[in-house]
Amino acid sequence: MTAETKTAAQPTAEFGRPRLRKEDERLITGQTNWTDNIRLPGMLHVAFLRSPYAHARITSVNVSAARAEPGVIAAYSGADFAAEQGSLPCAWPVTPDIVIPAHPPMAVDEVRYAGEAVACVVARDRYAAADALAAIEIDYEPLPPVLDIRTALQDDSPKVHEAGNRSFVWPFAQGDMDAAFRDAPVVLERYYRQQRLIPAAMEPRSVVCSCVGGEFTLWSATQIPHVLRVMLALTTGIPEQNLRVIAPDVGGGFGSKLQVTAEEVLAVLIARKLGRPVKWTETRSEGNMTVHHGRDQWQKITIAADADGRIRGLDVDLLADMGAYLMLVTPGIPLLGAFMYPAIYKMDAYSFTCTGVFTTKMPTDAYRGAGRPEATFAIERIMDDLAAELALDPLELRERNWIKHEEFPYTTVAGLTYDSGNYEAATAKAKELFDYDGLRREQERRRTNNDPVQLGIGVSTFTEMCGLAPSRVLGSLAYGAGGWEQASIRMLPTGKVEVVTGSSAHGQGHETAWSQIVADQLGVAFEDIRVLHGDTQVSPKGMDTYGSRSLAVGGMALVSACDKVVEKARVIAAATLEASADDLEWVPGRFEVRGDPDKSVTIGEIALAAFAAHNLPDGVEPTIDADATYDPDNFSFPHGTHLCATEVDTETGFVTIRSYVCVDDIGTVVNPLIVEGQVHGGLAQGIAQALYEEAVYDDEGNLVTSTLADYLVPSAADLPSYVTGRTESRAANRLGVKGVGEAGTIASTPAVVNAIIDALRPYGVNDITMPCTPERVWRAIQTAQGEQTGSAAEQHAARQSDQTQGNSPQGRDGGAA
Amino acid sequence: MNEIAPRFGTGVTVPGVLRLPKECVLFARKGNRVAEVTVSVDGVKYSDHVEPRLLLVHYLREVVGKTGTPVGCDTSNCGACTVLLNGESVKSCAVLAVQADGGEVTTIEGMATDAGLHPLQQAFHEEHALQCGYCTPGMIMAASDLLRENPHPSDDEIRAGLEGNLCRCTGYENIVRAVRRAAQAGVGA
User: For A338-368, what is the HEC assignment?
Assistant: First the structure.
């Protein structure tokens, strides 16, 4: 298959068309329905008091003075909820002996991270609620914080939980590691840091809950209304049929709203206690502290190779920071990376161990890419080092090891069967768009001239497993739910169509893309279709949106549902046309009698006939609506080649991305406009990890980066323009589609860091801890130069300084040294 | 939020402070000072008694009922709440309602006219410059001020001009394209 290969199997014109989005009209005019916009009669506002300590025993809480404040209806401490609040769920117990500590939504006896809710006020408006927090009296007995996963497992470390700081150890091995490493001509061992990140969706979390006659309606800025409903029922004991969860317009998620939060549970309990609707909307500072964080791993990776660069074996030993508790899928996140370290490469043996460690910090959980960016970073970084070690071009080394396009489907050493791919095509196209050879020549010139601004070229080839997905596989990994998705097609008597999807969008453009798919399948107009989602009463079943799963799973459910509609319609069409069902030909939009195309009936006419139900054959139900639930038999494996050119000012350490080219193979494309947008946004988040973002805790366990002044979500001025391209190898599903939501994030971080290191290799630099701030880059150069001149004392001083300075927050204006 | 005390920037006229029965006053409690604020929002005049500490964005959202302007942070970094105050863009979370007294506020809800979408709204739609859309109101309002000051910005000037507005979805590429398209359509001219 070549870069030019295009799908031929799509029925009509919508597939592949850059349709402008249906969603936009309300979003660009301010007619949005964010959760925080909701105002219900009699609605009260909740404000939470949060622990200022990372770790402390709560010795007393007195909320009575707060209760006496004007406009305050109620004030509660954790003890007030103790009997009913249950424990926030962890749905992914990755090993049989995993330690899953109790996680009360509101702390009762002990707090284990700064920001944990310890009390709350319910008042007439949000200002009154916030005011009254000051009247709550609470005493703490501080306990020692546990902040570094590298020392948390030592015997003398303070404990986060009584059971100790080890949550689980998850081992995995394939092939003969001894044989792979014994006598290997090249063995490299590297130690990489995946810094802690804050997802920072632009819409802060918000929850509204009403309780009328024992029936609860919860509006939440969530990615997972369906999962949330089940989990709320299990956590609170409220019967599931009495819970309705609505995700109205949701302002971004990136994994951070794939969660069952303390505030959601408490909103339900408070609404039940008071019999009045309540709202809570977080401030950004609350959000930075208490929306789950991402990444935070130390990765030890060892690679064994032959002298020609062929990979023999790979060993990964991972320490993953769980934070203080295990939230919805906290322990599973590193395992989504476990199968991805071998990436696109063939090798004889692979072993992986992940140890999940508790600390007194905000729990980690899914953040765009979830496990796969970490894996891709480590393998792509060490591949560059291996190339440098062997004096090979980094793309040449990759090509010697990657799976050839004619070898698909290919079962990797990690046991995954990649259905499709063409790494040669993506790489060739990326090199062309990038002017790879020209930039290499310029790099050589700058090196020769000792230019203070050096040019670096960073490479990242990647694949990922997404489209989460096969329920059986998820089950084998001890995941607590399935991976199917549901769709319903409702054929309205006026010929219009309602499409109900269980995949709940929050920026991905489902209303547009789903309309395109159904328009093609049913031969109805794009404009005649309305997509409904995000309300468990409207779309009763679903597995929601995460893991780049919506199209590869939810899109396929749509196709299955359309198939059923067509088959039901065929029976009625046969009666209408007085022909045998077998003689009818489905031409999207209508049935024709074979050999007599003038005799035909449209799908809209059939819908009306079903509605009227006057002339249906005996035993035929008067509807052509259909539901389908789709469970794929494999993951989705998008891949791509990303190339980044950075200019590194060796005198200031300042890094400028000069050009960024990515060529992604995400299979066939429903809407190229939406795809390009997904790639752009993914790139921005991946580049942000490489250059800007880090959640920093101080030595006491306080989050220093609690505002967007301290936590550097990049602006337009901080990011480059991107050149994107696509190649296409069809996935093994009927639409040929793969996931795209996380691709950009997964590939871009190592591309940027590899580019910085590539610029600085002549200076003796072979690693810089992310984010590669000007200060860190500058110090890395100084340290390496010190080593080259052999001054041990200088090196030591620089290292010490790097360790302390490296942890200091980079202010928005202070970053550019 | 409880730390916000009544305070005013230099050069700001502090409106008359009066006391009213609390039933009449939104966002004011017994013992708290209240101030009268008269402001035009998207062409409609409003007059209310508010606590001096009330943020303009909360006034817009919760008193006037203009929820098209969202709140994205509490440190005026993200720009989601950007509106025009007397023609210039301000982050309405960093302005007190009383500071807008006597002024004219334009929000995203006031951009489209009977003739249709504002060219910036149209450009954001056509260039796919939004995904979740949460930053979009502020981004469009900031862009309109940018084009007022510089009707024909370069891409770098667009990026620098929107530095105070964060987007987490788009990576900014299409936002830059949209502002460029609106500039070409003559928005700032």
Answer: HCCCCCCECCCEEEEEEEEEECCCCCECCCC
